[in-house]
Every structure is written in structure tokens, then in C-alpha cells.
Amino acid sequence: DIGTERYTFNFTIRDSPTYFINVQSWGREEYIRSLSESFRVGDCVTIENPLIQSKEAEREEKFNPVTPSAYKLLLSENHSVVKTSSCYDTDTRLLSLLHLPVKNPQDYYSLGDIVANGQSLHGRVLNLLAAVMAVSE
């Protein structure tokens, strides 16, 4: 609808050391807020009825992890469902994936690198590997 605000929430899922895919969702604020609060990093999820779309690598991978797939999953407010599994139902093979980064370890910049080389990096899009202490609006 023209003039209606839409919100987005993106995340990446993985089920093996090699394969992972980006997930994109669009919808009303209530839907996106509820979806984003329904699971955390490290949770196991089941995604029902996503739309599979070809990704536009140049555009989408600028702000999302580069994935080995030529596709992305699109969640629809009216058709898709994301369910979390309890920790007792978690497949132990998936637990080993929690600490694997989605990028090559040589493809990151440290904050020290940015401070030391900021002038030469100006205007570039970089990958950072850092610990997040808090997330808020």
C-alpha cells in the first residue's frame, strides 16, 4: 500500500559448516518486532513456507554475509512461520556451528586496523569481527 510504512528484519541461518543462507522479512512493525524478538543468536529455528528467491549478489551482499547459495529466503507475514526449538530438542551437530563465522578469518578488519589506516579505508565497506555488548533501539 502506498504510504504504508514497512519494516525489515534480516538474519542468516546455517545447518552445516559449509552451507548457510540469508533470510529477509518485510512487514508491519508489529510483525517484524515480534519476529525479531522471537529468537536469539544460537537458537535453533524451523522456517515454514518461505519464498525462495534468487539473490542480487552485488546489491544484497554489501550489507549481508556473503553466502555460498545463489538464493535467499523471503519470509511473508501472511504465509511464513519461524518456530524455535527448545534446547532439549537441539541437534547436537548444530551446536558445533555456533562459533563458526560466516566469513573467511582473513576477510576481517580489527578496530585497531581502522584507527591506524582510517584515511586509506575511507569510503570502503569493511567486515568487522567484534563482540557485541548490547543491542537497543
From TrEMBL:
Gene Ontology molecular function: single-stranded DNA 3'-5' DNA exonuclease activity; single-stranded DNA binding
One of the GO biological process terms: resolution of meiotic recombination intermediates
Domain MEIOB-like N-terminal, first and last residues per copy: 2-103
What keywords are assigned to this protein? DNA-binding
Q: Does the keyword DNA-binding apply?
A: yes
Task: Name the chain's protein.
Answer: MEIOB protein
Recorded source organism is Pomatorhinus ruficollis (streak-breasted scimitar babbler)
Organismal lineage: Eukaryota, Metazoa, Chordata, Craniata, Vertebrata
Gene this protein is translated from? Meiob
